[in-house]
Structure formats: structure tokens, C-alpha cells
Amino acid sequence: MQATVTYLHHSGFSVKTPGHYLVFDYDGTQPGPDKHLLREPGAAVFASHRHPDHFRRQILEWKREIPSLTLVLSDDIRCKEPAVRLGPHQRAELSGMEIATLRSTDLGVAFVVKADGLCIYHGGDLNWWHWNGEPDSFNRPMEEQYKQEIRRLKGQAIDLAFLPADPRQEDAEFWGLTYFMETVGAKIVAPMHRWDDESILDRLSALWREKGWNARLLLLKTPGEKADFSF
Q: Per-residue pLDDT tens for 31-46?
């Protein structure tokens, strides 16, 4: 199965498969998604929650311009436009896709999307949010909630995963990503939520060389940068 992954910015990516064009968590950065592909059958735009680094109301304008476009939104996003709105632990089948959600440890949902024989995971803000300086009464429940959600994916064959790697977390920046890989795994992983700190990619690459995972790492740095895969 062929797929083209394009980095849009921050946590935003698009995935082009033979029958679908999927856009996740677009934050308004240019050049943005391919408007021509948004008009094709099977195009869908996902937003994991309402935070502005994951959702811009611009995608609602796309729906008004392109009525055939499918919007899949977390249920914390309010809109008048026709959309599939999903809360945590819900499922939907539409436009040749199977969609399931997990509960974020921040706001909204994470998405598991099956389309054209591929299984794609986009974590949104579902992460092991450990913050140095916060008390155990905050950090411990966050760890437990994250692990509980990720364990729901055990046994699933994930082809492509978009996972947070946030440099603001200091020494905990890879805890969530590492737990995901040890518990679920994925053929290809694109780190996201990097806040334009590209040094985190060097640190992650070094860590994954030690673990033997480096061949699975997709490092896209510039908005509009693409990579092609055969799964």
C-alpha cells in the first residue's frame, strides 16, 4: 500500500493514500494542505480538540467551499457546519474509513483511522504529560491515565503513528512516545508537537539508535516536506 505523508506544522500532517486524503490537526501554517486534493472523493479533515495549535476555524471555511469534504472533529469543538463529532471511546464508519477515538490526557481525543488497508494513529494531545516541578498528585494520575489509554491499542498493527515529543517536558520529553513504542509499536513514527525546536529530533534519533528503532523514525522538519512509503 502506497502513502505520502506531508508535514504541515507542529502536530499537523496530511496522509495521501490511493483512496483518501486525510488532514490532521492543521494549525493554519502555510503552505497548508493541497486544496485540489481536498476536493477529491475520500478527503477528510480531522481536529483532535479546540486548542489553536491543533484547530483553526479555517477548516470550517473549507467545508463551506467544498460540501463533499468530510470533517471529523472532537466533540469539544463547536460548529454549525456539518461534521462528524466524536467524543472519547467512540467509533464511526464513513467514506470508506473506520475511525475510533481515545481520551486525551489534556483535551479532546486521539484518532485511530483505518483506510485503504492502513492503520493510522494521531495522538492529538494524548501524551504522558509529566512536568518537572509539578507535585506527584498531578504527575502520577497523568501517567496512569496515559498508560490506560495506550493499553487500549495493544494488539493493533499500527502502520503510521503521529506522536507528541514536547521539548518543554525536559527529561520527560520522550516518556510518552517510548511507552507507546514499547506497548503498541508502529512501522513508521513521526514525532510532533515539537514547538519548532528541531534539536529534539537529534536527541530522539540518538535514543532510537540505542533501541534499534531508528529505521522507523520519520523526521520531517519543514512545512510542506513530504515522504513516500510502501507498507
A: 999 999 999 999 999 9
- The dihedral over CA atoms of 73, 91, 218, 56, expressed in degrees to the nearest 10, equals 0
Closest CA to 22 of 65, 69, 57: 69
Q: How far apart are CA 58 and CA 55, in angstroms?
A: 8
Confidence of residue 86 (pLDDT cuts 50, 70, 90): very high
Q: Is 205 helix (H, G, I), strand (E, B) or coil?
A: helix
Distance CA 26, CA 56 (A): 7
Strands (E), the chain: 2-9, 12-16, 21-24, 43-47, 70-74, 84-86, 91-94, 97-103, 109-115, 118-122, 160-164, 188-192, 226-230
Q: Is 122 helix (H, G, I), strand (E, B) or coil?
A: strand
User: What are the grid coordinates assigned to 63, written together?
Assistant: 467545508
Separation CA 178–CA 103 (nearest Å)? 19
Q: In sequence order, which residues have a C-beta less than 8 Å from that of residue 208 and are 6 or more positions away?
A: 214, 216, 217
Query: Rounded to an integer, what distance in angstroms lies between the CA atom of residue 156 and that of residue 94?
Result: 20
Specify the pTM: 0.97
In which residue are the cell numbers 519543514 written? 222
Say how far apart CA 151 and CA 103 lie, in whole Å: 12
